[in-house]
Specification:
The complex is a heterotetramer of chains A (117), B (140), C (495) and D (491). Chain A is built from five helices and no strands. With 117 residues, chain A is an all-alpha fold. Chain C has a domain of 205 residues. Helix content of chain C is 76%, strand content 2%. Classes of the chains: A mainly alpha (117), B mainly alpha (140), C mainly alpha (495), D mainly alpha (491).
Chain lengths: 117, 140, 495, 491
């Protein structure tokens, strides 16, 4: 069952592909950001799952626990999540402004407007 | 708002609890899961709930956007202040143990300090983001 | 305080950013604080470079945590050089920014603008100075977030869309980098690059490490705009405010190239990268295509900013080409080009910024005959343009000379020929601008145009003069670049 | 006693200082024009100071700075460079006078700009003359190209821009695309670019590679106008005539052939050159160029264009001289730089004078003009004879040496080509004179009496014409000056 034993990696791969596909294939600016989020989330899950240890608890110093998950990836991913939130906010803010300027959030539409200028 | 009396009652009970929970996470961060990031976001969440019920203007009377702006800067500066303090006291940047005579106490003090800075910044930035999105009207 | 220089290098700008944000109501004050910060940064960078000029290495443990647990800042010949580039460009661009920004950015946002600029600056400095792989990612995102904001403040509405595209591509890039770092962490249990360098040789046989290499290389290539991953760059540079274009064109891609060097040479090691993976055979064709195609595209551009942006993509190709020779000389040529291209392109974009200040836009038809009204600006453009072409006694020539030497040393005659032919193409596109400005008749409404104000002109000329100074007094950049190359290779070279 | 280095630097600084002075004086036309002449005279004086030292066998030298180890901007005055510098600075005085007259007479604009770039061009020509290594020479060569561009494009109309673009494109293209790689490869293979008597290649560079390098250099030196890279020279004729006269008869093209001689004698070395397979190829390219350019010249009706093709042809004499690899030919090449310079500058001055006086540029329009402008056409006649190589004019000596050299080398074909070319010279240079003096003027243009161009045009062209005569007598001292260069060349 080794193929299934690494199921978290399968999730990572599927999410990554899904996210990446959305980023590339979608012309809607908001959907692109959704895709980007899924893509990033796959990386987060990847990190978290590599911190996992068999029979380990959460990485908190408790008196009678010896096996716990590696805390470092958790810390890293906490930072990465914050960065991701900031990126999403930034991206959405841009989309809002693009919408105000062009009246559309479809890429094709916007390019057409630019070319007509 | 009168039509949503249940919501109002429940949420006026909930909001204080959320806020207190935020403070709990904030100041318990060095012993248990938690810290400035989480606390800041939970704190913002309370305000989001408040805004949903009482409207943006009411929320902005409580914490004006300018204040949120300033607070986000102040949080970072607090963080940096601790960094510079450790440097002036002879340690490396953010080497907290030099802050107090006792190493252990110094580290605790330092972590609480910078986490407070982080918490303030995250809460303030979260609010700023929320205000700026919520404040937009089409056709503006 | 001298032992704290590495921390100060980043922290000064990082601390000044919120301060400046709070001064949003007083634009001039915000500008002043930013100016002082940038100059302080430059001073720190110079001091650091002096300290490591003898080949020594400075270690600084953040928070007193020893690596590999804590984040370590590590300065050697290579990143001190990059720090100097960032420091120098930001210090020179600030006096220029005062009036340029006042004209292009609404007054109630100038404080925020400078705050974002400082963050971008601090982020780039952080990327260069840190020795922690994950920290590189974080600083990448800090600088990138700030850059997105800066680009989006351009006056044209297309600025927002180009910023958005940059955001998408940039985030994909950094996420790739993050995944690659994850792979490395699985296999080695460390994030410190020096530690990685020690532990990686034991596990290089695994597919995981190769995957890591691929993810990291592709991720960084997106950030450094390696052809054909450069699509974000021309738009971003064309529509950003003048000052932002100057700063980003001179620093952002350079820092990304430095990170690539750091991973290829230090973390993975020369042997793994070049002998086992033969990365040169991927880099060289891409570099050559990246030199040729964007150069040709540049010839057909109507907008000067866009033209120079395409030329930037081509110049990135030069730097990657030097790396792909897999020799010390090639590496050194690349490293010296980091600096030479930074000052050259910054000077060019500053000259363009002067034109924008007076004309509002820089399409070839709009700058027709402008040389008569703005002789000093156009003279600066010509001189810096010569450096871009690589005429002797300019900084660009020093690079080209060494790059050609490196190509010949490998017996790559065709590559040498391509380099020379492309410098002719560069002549053509610079020439187009010069001809428009000098020889086309000015439109009727151009009577009112005056020379750009001194506060714009002086910094432009300072950088322009720098391209000449370092073209004539080439020992300094060469010895610094040699030092940097040795730091990356880890062994002293006989030059 | 002024030090060598100081003299060299002064020789180069004077045109730059003069340039600054005349920018400052740009508002006062008379003062500005006077400054041009003064600058030229002072410069000639300074260069003249170097002559006794060179004659005494010294090699004044100076190092400006080192770019990086082994690559420096340095100067050394040797006989050939001395001759070139004297020629350029000496003729500048006359040209300056002529230019003032011409610019006013032809009602050109932007006088200050014109003189400024002229100063820079002279500065870089001196730099070329005095360069101690190929790198310095290359730098000044490029400055010369760039500084003459605005002069060529001076008129600013579409034709001028088009011509100037060809000019710049070909000269920059060949120098960056061919000469620079050759230069870098030489540096890489031989380890130096120093101009060394006897060359630097022998023993260091494989003759097979040397063969390629020679071709790269010869075509890279676009200013020597070997076919098929000669197009720039006719294109440059859109420039005002003083530019054509000094630059395209003296400074620029002579810088080209001067570089050819320097490269062949001091970089390759004649002994090494003999080993190379491409020497003969270049020789025959040069021969082909000199014949076909003459043939083209015959068909040109525009006087300046005809002179331009004549120049292309004459330049190839010198390239051929270098490729013949013997003492006589090398001396002939060196002398021809001077002889042709005087002859051709006279011809150009005349062409300019005709234009100023009558606005005529086509030869077919010049019937009977000799009666109106006798001095000009007499000078033209003398210049033409000098270029053709008829005694008692200077040109005969250089042709004589060339022929001797070709004969000595056993290159019968070259001897034949030189003879044919001389006949062609006669065929394209004498008709204008014949038309002017012997044919009647067209109807309606009968004018009474002499109406020459302004004095400032006529006097210089008379001077250079007399110079052509004087050179016949002066050939001995000139050969004496070139002797040390020869002893190197002859091996």
């Amino acid at each position: 069952m080794t193929w299934f034993g690494l199921y978290s990696y399968w999730i990572v791969v599927v999410l990554m592909m899904v996210g990446f596909y959305i980023v590339i294939a979608q012309g809607n600016l908001v959907k692109k950001i959704v895709g980007l989020n899924i893509f990033q989330t796959s990386a987060f899950i990847f990190f978290i799952s590599l911190a996992w240890r068999e029979d380990g608890t959460a990485p908190i110093a408790l008196p009678d626990v010896t096996e716990y998950a590696n805390p470092l990836p958790h810390v890293l991913i906490l930072t990465a999540i914050v960065v991701g939130v900031a990126l999403t906010a930034m991206g959405l803010a841009l989309v809002v402004r693009v919408h105000e300027a062009y009246g559309s959030i479809e890429e094709d539409d916007i390019h057409r407007q630019d070319e007509q200028q | 708002m009168n039509r949503y009396i249940v919501l109002r009652v429940i949420s006026s009970l909930m909001i204080p609890i959320i806020l207190i929970y935020a403070f709990y996470i904030q100041f318990h961060g060095e012993y248990s899961p938690g810290g400035g990031f989480q606390a800041g976001i939970v704190f913002t969440a309370a305000f989001v709930v408040y805004t949903l019920l009482y409207g943006l203007e009411a929320a902005q009377r409580a914490i004006p956007p300018e204040a949120a702006h300033a607070l986000s800067a102040i949080g970072v500066l607090l963080f940096a202040a601790f960094g510079f303090a450790t440097m002036l006291l002879g340690g490396n940047f953010l080497e907290y143990k030099v802050l107090l005579p006792n190493d252990q106490a110094g580290e605790t003090f330092g972590i609480i300090g910078i986490e407070l800075g982080v918490g303030i910044t995250v809460a303030a930035v979260g609010l700023t983001l929320f205000y700026s999105f919520a404040g937009r009207r089409t056709g503006e | 305080m001298s032992e704290h220089l590495p921390a100060l290098q980043v922290v000064i700008a990082l601390t000044a950013a919120p301060l400046v944000m709070m001064m949003n109501r007083f634009p001039r004050l915000a500008w002043g604080v930013t100016l002082v910060t940038c100059w302080a940064t430059l001073v720190v960078a110079v001091l650091l470079l002096l300290q490591v000029s003898d080949g020594s290495v400075i270690h600084y443990e953040m928070g007193g945590w020893a690596p590999p647990w804590g984040i370590e800042y590590r300065v050697d010949g290579a990143n001190a050089w990059v720090l100097l580039i960032i420091g120098l460009v930001s210090a020179v661009v600030m006096p220029f920014a005062l009036r340029s920004v006042e004209q292009e950015i609404p007054a109630d946002r100038i404080g925020l603008f400078y705050s974002a600029f400082l963050l971008a600056n601090a982020g780039l400095l952080g990327i260069a100075i840190t020795n922690d792989a994950f920290n590189i990612f974080v600083f990448f995102e800090i600088s990138a977030l700030a850059s997105y904001a800066l680009i989006a403040m351009g006056r044209d509405r297309r600025a927002m869309l180009s910023s958005y595209q940059y955001l998408i591509m940039g985030t994909v890039g950094t996420t790739f980098l993050l995944i690659g770092i994850g792979f490395l962490y699985i296999m080695t249990g460390t994030l410190n690059i020096s530690d990685l360098a020690m532990r990686l040789p034991e596990v290089t046989e695994t597919r995981t490490i190769r995957a890591a290499f691929a993810f990291i290389a592709v991720g960084i290539s997106l950030k450094l705009a390696l052809f054909p991953l450069h699509l974000w760059l021309p738009n971003a540079y064309s529509f950003a405010p003048s000052m932002v274009t100057v700063f980003l064109s001179a620093t952002a891609t350079k820092v990304a190239i430095y990170v690539l060097l750091r991973f290829i040479y230090t973390a993975f090691g020369f042997e793994f990268s070049f002998e086992e993976l033969s990365v040169a055979w991927v880099l060289m064709p891409l570099a050559l295509l990246g030199i040729i195609i964007p150069s040709v595209i540049a010839v057909f551009q109507e907008d000067v900013k866009r033209l120079l942006a395409y030329s930037s993509v081509a110049q990135v190709g030069y730097m990657i080409l030097g790396i792909s020779f897999a020799t010390a000389l090639g590496l050194m040529a690349s490293v010296v080009h980091l600096f030479n291209h930074a000052i050259t392109k910054a000077a060019l974009f500053m000259a363009v910024g002067c034109l924008v200040y007076r004309l509002g836009g820089v399409s070839l038809s709009r700058i027709a005959g402008v040389a008569e009204r703005m002789p000093w600006t156009m003279a600066a453009f010509v001189v810096a343009g010569l450096s871009l072409i690589g005429v002797p006694l300019t900084a660009g020539f020093v690079t080209k000379w060494h790059l050609l030497q490196a190509a010949l040393m490998e017996g790559l005659w065709p590559v040498a020929v391509v380099l020379l032919v492309i410098s002719l193409v560069a002549t053509v596109y610079i020439w187009k601008v010069v001809e428009a400005a000098y020889f086309r008749p000015a439109p009727e409404d151009a009577r009112e145009i005056r020379e750009a104000p001194l506060s714009l002109l002086v910094p432009t000329w300072v950088l322009t003069a720098t391209t000449i100074i370092f073209g004539v007094w080439a020992q300094f950049p060469i010895s610094a670049a040699r030092n940097a190359a040795e730091a990356l290779l880890g062994v002293p070279q006989s030059w | 006693m002024v030090s060598d280095a100081a003299l060299i630097y002064w020789a180069m600084a004077v045109p730059l200082l003069g340039m600054l002075a005349l920018i400052a004086a740009s508002r006062w036309a008379v003062l500005r024009d006077a400054l041009v002449v003064v600058t030229a005279a002072v410069m000639f004086g300074v260069v003249l100071q170097l002559l006794p030292r060179v004659l005494a066998g010294e090699r004044p030298s100076a190092t400006l700075f080192e770019l990086f180890p082994g690559l420096e901007i340095a100067f050394m005055v040797e006989p050939l460079g001395m001759v070139f510098a004297l020629l350029a600075s000496g003729l500048w005085i006359i040209t300056a006078l002529y230019a003032i007259g011409y610019m006013r007479g032809a009602k050109e604009l932007h006088h200050t700009r014109f003189h400024v770039y002229f100063c820079i061009a002279l500065f870089s020509a001196t730099g070329i003359a005095f360069s101690a290594n190929m790198f310095s020479l290359f730098v000044f060569y490029e400055i010369l190209t760039l500084s003459t561009y605005p002069l060529v494009a001076h008129k600013g109309n579409e034709a001028a821009k088009q011509g100037a673009r060809t000019y710049l494109g070909l000269l920059l293209g060949t120098s960056i695309g061919l000469m620079l790689p050759a230069l870098i490869a030489t540096w890489w293979l031989a380890g130096t670019l120093e101009f060394t008597p006897g060359g630097i290649m022998a023993g260091r560079v494989d003759p097979a590679v040397g063969t390629i390098l020679l071709v790269l250099f010869m075509y890279g030196i676009g200013k020597a106008a070997l076919m098929p890279f000669h197009r720039w020279l006719p294109s440059a004729m859109v420039a005002p005539t003083p530019v054509s006269a000094l630059l395209h008869a003296v400074a620029v093209v002579k810088a080209g052939v001067f570089t050819v001689l320097k490269v062949t004698v001091y970089l390759f070395g004649l002994d090494y050159l003999e080993l190379l397979g491409s020497t003969d190829i270049i020789l025959y390219v040069a021969v082909f160029t000199l014949l076909s350019a003459s043939l083209v010249a015959i068909q040109k009706d525009n006087l300046k264009a005809r002179l331009a093709y004549s120049t292309v042809s004459q330049l190839s004499y010198i390239v051929a001289a270098a490729m013949l690899v013997n003492e006589f030919a090398a001396l002939g090449g060196g002398m021809h730089i001077v002889m042709h310079a005087f002859g051709k500058i006279t011809l150009f001055f005349c062409a300019g004078a005709i234009y100023v006086a009558t606005k005529k540029t086509e030869i077919s329009d010049m019937n009977g003009l000799g009666r109106r402008m006798p001095v000009t056409f007499c000078a033209f006649f003398l210049g033409a004879l000098c270029v053709i190589g008829v005694p008692p004019l200077g040109g005969v000596w250089s042709k004589w040496h060339l022929l001797m050299g070709a004969y000595d080398s056993g290159a019968q074909l070259v001897v034949l080509a030189l003879i044919i070319s001389t006949l062609l010279n006669i065929a394209y240079l004498i008709p204008p004179v014949v038309r002017a003096f012997l044919l009647p003027p067209p109807k309606g243009e009968e004018t009474a009496g002499v109406r020459e161009a302004p004095l400032l045009c006529v006097v210089p062209l008379s001077l250079t014409a007399l110079g052509c005569l004087a050179l016949f007598v002066m050939a001995g001292p000139l050969a004496e000056l070139l002797r040390p260069y020869l002893s190197v060349a002859g091996g």
